[in-house]
Design goal:
Distance between the termini: 79 Å
Radius of gyration: 33 Å
Number of strands: 5
Number of helices: 12
Strand content: 5-15%
Structural class: mainly alpha
């Protein structure tokens, strides 16, 4: 087969007798290989007649599919399916972020938009940005075959920020912050700060290690290094801290078990899924399938963690696991005047109906408005606009003895056959309505 090589003579100078030239060999050709499975290919160039080695400049354009095949042409076999998977996760996370923002507006209207939910929004936003950057990186690579290293690194940094914020969120909720207490004790806050500082430093060093010490000619997983294994150890320690906080939160506040039981089970699996994935990637998964397997698995684990938290904290009366039961305004007002132990008790659900729903939290929706007619009948009409949150006593009628039973009691429509005098004597005076309009769930 024709090698496609030719001699090129380049003049480098001349003297009085003859000109001097530098001879180079210029080669341009194509080769194609077909194999039954994925293989590594190595290219060697040598000059057997030279004892001084070679001065060579080269540029390879290696493809792994038919020309114009967007999904395969420029990707190595261990990178197949990464772009479709990341694109799917990107659109899924955009939907999750949109849903979480709707829930945040609902919680804001009810004064239940706590710090922990804001941390969750930050984690969700960082993961979404990271997925967008990685999707752009792989999409451009599919088109041109050229890496934009900074774009890929930025996407991974945003995803690492998302993981860091989510671990912070889980540890705070495990301690009961904004669920059973309004603030952390000083020793707990110090331990949490030290743990997160070490986690952040190791994460930063891991990216530095990958940037300057990893050999790009080899397939090396991000965690296949000493800082990576240290990060795994810290994650296991974080899981133990998480379980410790959940156990003591349940011990002191067993009424929060509808939230903490599924919370502890789901996120124990989430904490352990990371180390299991890393160990399997380093020791069980073949190198030619490692990258695509680990990337898809890691993003799936992150997705399960985010969507599970979104499900547990959805603002719905049917959600028996809803963790927040104190308004954000009460947290700021009461934590400064009441001791922590006394303040924690306020985080229990105040009134739960026969179906297990927290009526005090999800009474005001603005969907149905209760209107009292001139004859004393109460009927529902659709509200034209969402009503602003009513005053505290109007939202929590159970704090007045007998008020809930009186509000839920059906009016007696039967007519008494007694005399007018007896009717006037025994008639029940109409109940005074609240100064604010009453609302209920449609």
């Amino acid at each position: 087969m024709d090698s496609g090589c030719e001699y090129v003579h380049t003049p480098i100078g001349s003297n009085h007798t003859k000109s001097e030239y530098k001879t180079r060999i210029f080669c341009k050709n194509t080769r194609s290989f077909s194999t039954a499975r994925e293989r590594w290919w190595f290219i060697a160039v040598a000059n057997c007649n030279s004892s001084k080695g070679l001065e060579i400049e080269y540029k390879f354009r290696m493809t792994n599919g038919k020309i114009g095949d967007y999904w395969y042409e420029h990707f190595s076999a261990d990178e197949f399916y990464i772009l479709p998977a990341l694109t799917s996760f990107c659109f899924t996370y955009l939907f999750l972020l949109f849903t979480a923002l709707i829930f945040a507006v609902e919680l804001k209207c009810r004064q239940l938009f706590h710090v922990t939910y804001k941390i969750f929004l930050g984690s969700l936003a960082a993961q979404t940005i990271g997925l967008i950057l990685l999707s752009i990186f792989y999409a451009r690579y599919a088109s041109t075959g050229v890496h934009i290293h900074g774009l890929k690194l930025s996407g991974k940094i945003f995803e690492s920020i998302s993981e860091f914020l989510f671990i912070l969120l889980l540890l705070l909720l495990g301690k009961g912050f904004t669920v059973t207490r309004g603030r952390l004790r000083l020793p707990s806050a110090v331990k949490l700060t030290l743990f997160l500082a070490q986690y952040f430093i190791l994460f930063t060093f891991l990216f530095f290690f990958q940037e300057y010490f990893f050999d790009p000619g080899k397939v090396l997983y991000l965690y296949e290094s000493a800082p990576g294994y240290g990060l795994l150890l810290l994650r296991l320690i974080g899981w133990l801290m998480f379980l410790y906080g959940v156990v003591f939160s349940l011990k002191h506040f067993p009424e929060k078990s509808p939230f903490y039981f599924p919370f502890a089970l789901l996120y124990s699996i989430w904490f352990l899924a990371g180390p299991i994935t890393v160990l399997a990637a380093n020791h069980l998964i073949d190198t030619w399938v490692r990258e695509k397997t680990t990337i898809i698995t890691e993003h799936f684990v992150s997705f399960i963690g985010h969507i599970s938290f979104l499900f547990l904290t959805r603002p719905s009366a049917a959600n028996k696991s809803f963790p927040y039961h104190v308004r954000t305004t009460q947290v700021g007002a009461e934590s400064s005047t009441v001791s922590l132990e006394q303040f924690q008790n306020a985080y229990a659900p105040s009134y739960i109906d026969n179906n297990g729903r927290t009526v005090d939290i999800f009474t005001v929706t603005g969907v149905l408005q209760r209107v009292e007619g001139s004859n004393g009948d109460v009927f529902g009409v659709p509200a034209a606009f969402r009503a602003p949150p009513p005053k505290y006593l109007d939202v929590f009628p159970h704090e007045v003895p007998g008020a809930v039973e009186e509000m839920l009691k059906e009016p007696d429509m039967t007519q008494s056959e007694s005399s007018d005098t007896e009717d006037q004597t025994n008639s029940i005076p109409p109940r005074e309505t609240s100064r604010e309009t009453l609302y209920t769930i449609a």
